[in-house]
């Protein structure tokens, strides 16, 4: 942008011999470009008088253009907090460092929070008489970096969550392994502790698998599938056996409802089982002790639909899609879904790649039902 303005300044000398119509056309073209920018832009002359402010900048300043353009910025800043913040780094002894180290500007617009980064560029012009470059003004831009800020926050939350999720089973395993060293423990107690260690090991293994799967997907490797006619009864059997220890610990009842004439599906057994294990593990985590989980499957046209129903806290409608985003953490007041925030995202990738669909039906306080479809074998 600064280079473009410098080119415009040098071209002005050429325009001295141009017609008025040509000058007006060029001015209007430049103004049109500036006014359509999605960044806030402020153009100051060498005395810091405001020569131009595009619509985005005027909106951020909360002032109409006629109260901005033509005004001395040092005077206007006395009555405008945002302009005061923008100009403050320009007064520092090391302006470049002050601008680079300036914190993001937190601005509320139409009830929404947004973050902007300030950038400053000097404008210079070559004086043919003195054969020197002269300072003729500055461009100040505000770039909306809210999306980057949110991604950074998501990354921080994810790292904190993964650290916690890894620490919990490791701490539990450490305690249980120390208990096993006590030779006075009865055999049945040793067996129980061994089962606990195995359960925590499986939990860690699932988390590492999730991280590796996401890494492969981000690298553009896609989902490798081994599609073949598959019995959903077998898939359900594998998955329920894997989570049986967790169900027993919480005294949860598992109700499996599969019709005898359920058609086979064309699916990847390993990945479909992984999805069902993830859904059952989530349902177990959020169900109160003594509750029941229901696994259903039924034909749905050319597809077969599978569902896992729990009696947990439920999920607000506004978060039905958000929970399938990577690293999503839903506030507890709207139905908290903990974990690494990867399981549901990966599950949807696995099901979608097999020609199916994965979604949730839920209301706060009414539990949740996660459903997915797979193509039936004709």
UniProtKB/TrEMBL annotation:
Q: Which GO terms describe its biological process?
A: regulation of DNA-templated transcription
Query: Which residues belong to any copy of the Histidine kinase domain?
Result: 161-378
Which residues are in the PAS domain? 26-71
EC numbers: 2.7.13.3
The source's superkingdom equals Bacteria
A GO term for molecular function: phosphorelay sensor kinase activity
Q: Which InterPro entries match?
A: HATPase_C_sf, HATPase_dom, His_kinase_dom, HisK_dim/P_dom, HisK_dim/P_sf, PAS, PAS-like_dom_sf, PAS_fold
**Keyword set, alphabetical order:** Kinase, Membrane, Phosphoprotein, Transferase, Two-component regulatory system
Concerning SUPFAM superfamilies, the annotation shows: ATPase domain of HSP90 chaperone/DNA topoisomerase II/histidine kinase (SSF55874), Homodimeric domain of signal transducing histidine kinase (SSF47384), PYP-like sensor domain (PAS domain) (SSF55785)
Which reactions does this protein catalyse? Answer: ATP + protein L-histidine = ADP + protein N-phospho-L-histidine
CDD domains cross-referenced by the UniProt entry: HisKA, PAS
NCBIfam families the record matches: sensory_box (TIGR00229)
Q: What is this protein called?
A: histidine kinase
């Amino acid at each position: 942008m600064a280079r473009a303005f410098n080119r415009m300044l040098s071209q002005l000398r050429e325009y001295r011999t141009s017609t008025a119509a040509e000058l007006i056309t060029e001015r209007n073209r430049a103004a049109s470009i500036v006014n359509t920018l999605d960044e806030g832009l402020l153009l100051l002359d060498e005395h810091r008088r405001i020569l131009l402010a595009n619509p985005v900048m005027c909106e951020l300043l909360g002032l109409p253009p006629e109260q901005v353009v033509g005004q001395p910025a040092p005077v206007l800043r006395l009555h405008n907090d945002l302009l005061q913040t923008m100009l403050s780094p320009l007064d520092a002894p090391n302006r470049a460092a002050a601008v680079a180290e300036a914190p993001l500007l937190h601005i509320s617009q139409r009830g929404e929070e947004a973050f902007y980064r300030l950038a400053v560029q000097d404008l210079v012009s070559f004086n043919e008489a003195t054969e020197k470059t002269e300072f003729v003004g500055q461009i100040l831009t505000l770039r909306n970096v809210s999306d980057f800020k949110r991604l950074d926050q998501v990354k921080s939350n994810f790292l904190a969550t993964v650290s916690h999720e890894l620490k919990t089973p490791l701490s539990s395993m450490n305690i249980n392994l120390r208990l096993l060293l006590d030779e006075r423990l009865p055999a049945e107690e040793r067996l129980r502790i061994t089962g606990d260690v195995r359960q925590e090991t499986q939990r860690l293994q699932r988390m590492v698998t999730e991280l590796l799967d996401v890494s492969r997907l981000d690298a553009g490797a896609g989902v490798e599938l081994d599609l073949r006619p598959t019995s959903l009864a077998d898939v359900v059997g594998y998955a329920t056996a894997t989570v049986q220890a967790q169900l027993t610990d919480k005294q949860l009842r598992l109700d499996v409802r599969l019709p005898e004439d359920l058609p086979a599906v064309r699916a990847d057994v390993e990945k479909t089982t992984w999805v069902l294990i993830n859904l059952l593990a989530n349902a177990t985590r959020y169900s109160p002790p003594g509750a029941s989980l229901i696994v259903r499957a039924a034909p749905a046209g050319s597809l077969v639909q599978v569902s896992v129903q729990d009696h947990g806290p439920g999920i607000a409608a506004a978060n039905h899609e958000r929970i399938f985003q990577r690293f999503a953490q839903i506030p507890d007041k709207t139905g908290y879904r903990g974990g690494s925030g990867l399981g549901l995202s990966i599950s949807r990738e696995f099901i979608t790649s097999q020609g199916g669909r994965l979604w949730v039906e839920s209301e706060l306080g009414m539990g949740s039902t996660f459903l997915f479809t797979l193509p039936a074998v004709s």
